Amino acid sequence: CRVTARAPHRLPDHQALVRPWLQPRDGMSDRKSAATGKKGAAGTCDAATANSSKRKKILSKERQKPISKKRKQHASQVANIAESLCKREFVSPERIPAPPRPPLPPHRLVLAPMVGGSELPFRLLCRRYSAELCYTPMIYSSRFVEDADYRKSELLSAPPDKPLVVHFCGNDPATLLKAARLAEPHCTAVDLNLGCPQRIAHSGHFGAYLLDEADRSLLLSLVRTLAKNLRVPVFCKIRLLDEIEQTLRLCGQLREAGAALIAVHARYRGSATRRRDGPAHLEQVREIKAAMGDFPILANGNVRTGEDVLENLRLTGADGVMSAEGALDDPALFWRAAFVARRRRVSLKKQLKQAKAAASQGRSGGDGGGGGCNDVRELRAMLRPLMDVPPPASDEPPERSTVLCLEYLALAAAHADASPMTCVRFHARRICKEALAKYSLGDRLEAADTIAQVVQLVKQADLYESGEELFKLDPEEQKRKQEAAEFVRRNAAKRREFEQRMERKARREGKPADAYLSKGRVPPTVLDVAELRKLDAKQRMGWWASRFGQHCLAFHAEGSCARANSAFGCAFLHEQPVKNTDVPSWLQEDVEARF
Q: According to the model, what pLDDT value does residue 539 have?
């Protein structure tokens, strides 16, 4: 009757998940024997009987506690393991069930992850205007694990910055898990980047370049490792594969591996040198959502205004809309969508009530037509995607973009550690780009070194916008603008002639129309131009033509193009060289879209 005998195996630490009264107490039998050895067998049996009675009382109290529906299955599994522990059976760690994860955060209106774009001050501004869920910029998992300074700078947050999704890239399951565990206490979910198409993702073998069939086992092991070992949900952000069937299969595999939500950027991955292929293919998101049923799907693409958000929801049937470019231009984008949705809901409910009354009268009057019923069905279909859109935030956005920009700059000043000047200048340029261009303040913005200088420029633009001060264009500045406009017009016309000639040549040879124009269209980087200038004149032509054939050699090698400045114009592109690995994919896509 000695129920406290030592177990043959020492139990692992994770067995502490089981209630303490069910755990074997190591060393209890030795202490009990020492205490009762002088009393003999009778004393031992009395002690065991007392312990058994005490255990029964505890069991009775525990059984009286109600168990929620969500934890019934988990409680049943734990009870089975507890029974085996009482029988002194060894339980492997794999049999211990993970506790249920918390429900997903609201995800109807979502700010996308953007390198250099979705940092803390900008997230706070978007949350002020109805963004429900925000992603951090892309974080390199290996560096996040190894570098404490990098970890601190990339995971800067604040109490209002919830719920937050930490967006990691990587291709090693162990490293990703270490990084996710470090971020887990500070976030609501962890997201795996499977959509980045830029060259750094190709060379580092992460992002969209993990979507190939050859890497499918590695990809699923990444998701499975995170899902099994984290207490927060695991999200995935993907791009479309070449065929819709392939994308559907990928989404199903991600769900089976443990992903709790999938965001679909509805554009094809393309290649390391060509990423944007026109408008997003929202019809494929609709097919994905229909195939995945109740599984959460976010649609990303073709969103520039609040109306676009609602149209995206209507077309795709997705659970939420993610925006990057639209939110950069208008951080109050989601507020405008929520405001329009609320107004439409009121109107549609009123129309639906009237349609129901008309349909009822038609039936009672013996009218055999089904027009009233059809109206009811149509109105319900129109109302359905609007029902889950949250109401607009209490703070109404300002009418002028310059005032909205000043709000961002105030947040950037309050969180200076999370506001590098590159991000501050970028957001100011995007939020009030029309005003800066209209009043010739763009060059001064690029030269600003502090947040205070940017604030001063935006305030000046706001004075002009509000009419408090009259803007007078400097004659020299006006002349420079006219010359620049003429330069662009002349060279754009020359470029169109060249493109038409190359398309005709390709068609004559039976090739795709862009066969010649697609080669060498990606702009060179700063390092590429530096390498070009090291070569002698004989080597430059061949080296440049094989890499950047659509771009003007003279412009990059010499700093200017005499032909472009002449009356004839130049057919080659005169794009400024871009930065290297720190260029965000959405920014490179924006540059390419101008070609």
A: 86
Distances from the Cα of 239 to the Cα of 62, 194, 503, angstroms = 49, 7, 29
Question: Average pLDDT, stretch 10-19?
Answer: 41
Q: What angle do CA 153, 156, 162 make, to 5 degrees?
A: 155
Which DSSP category does 550 fall into?
A: T
Query: Is the CB of residue 442 less than 8 Å from the CB of residue 430?
Result: no
Length of the chain: 595
Q: What is residue 174's predicted lDDT score, i.e. its pLDDT?
A: 96
Our measurement of the distance from residue 513's CA atom to the centroid of its chain's CA atoms, rounded to an integer in Å, reads: 34
Coil, helix or strand at residue 321: strand
Q: What is the pLDDT of residue 37?
A: 46
Of the residues 196, 251, 552, 570, which is catalytic? 196
Please indicate whether residue 405 is annotated as part of the active site: no
Task: Give, in degrees to the nearest 5, the angle at Cα 454 between 451 and 459.
Answer: 125
The pLDDT score that the predictor gives to residue 177 is 96
Question: Is residue 88 left, alpha or beta, with left meaning phi > 0 and alpha meaning psi from -120 to 50?
Answer: left
Q: What is the pLDDT of residues 50-59, one digit of tens each?
A: 556 666 565 5
pLDDT, tens only, 337-376: 999 999 999 999 999 998 888 888 876 655 545 556 778 8
Give residue for tokens 């494929």.
284
Tokens for 417? 């550690």
- pTM of the prediction? 0.68
Q: Is the pLDDT of residue 332 over 90?
A: yes
Burial class (CB in 10 A: 0-12, 13-18, 19+), 125: buried
Residue 551 is classified by DSSP as B
- In angstroms, rounded to a whole number, what is the distance separating the alpha carbons of residues 297 and 290? 10
User: CB under 8 Å, gap of 24 or more: what pairs does 549-554 form?
Assistant: 549/519, 549/520, 550/517, 550/519, 550/520, 550/521, 550/595, 551/520, 551/523, 551/524, 551/575
- Per the prediction, the chain carries an average pLDDT of 82
Name the burial class of residue 563, with classes exposed (0-12), middle (13-18) and buried (19+) by CB atoms within 10 angstroms of its CB.
middle
In 3D space, the residue among 225, 222, 235 whose CA is nearest the CA of residue 264 turns out to be 235
Who contacts 164 (Cβ-Cβ below 8 Å, separation ≥6)? 123, 134, 135, 136, 157, 186, 187, 188
Cα(427)–Cα(422) distance, rounded to whole angstroms?
Answer: 9
> H/E element holding 167?
strand 164-169
Retrieve residue 139's tokens.
Answer: 């974080």
Highest-pLDDT range among 9-13, 518-522, 580-584: 518-522
The count of other CB atoms within 10 Å of the CB of residue 252 is 14
Q: Quick one: residue 270, left, alpha or beta (phi over 0 = left, psi -120 to 50 = alpha)?
A: left
Give, in order, the Cα–Cα distances in Å from 531 to each of 534, 541, 584: 5, 13, 23
Alpha-helical segments (H) within 365-474: 371-383, 401-414, 421-431, 433-438, 442-447, 451-466
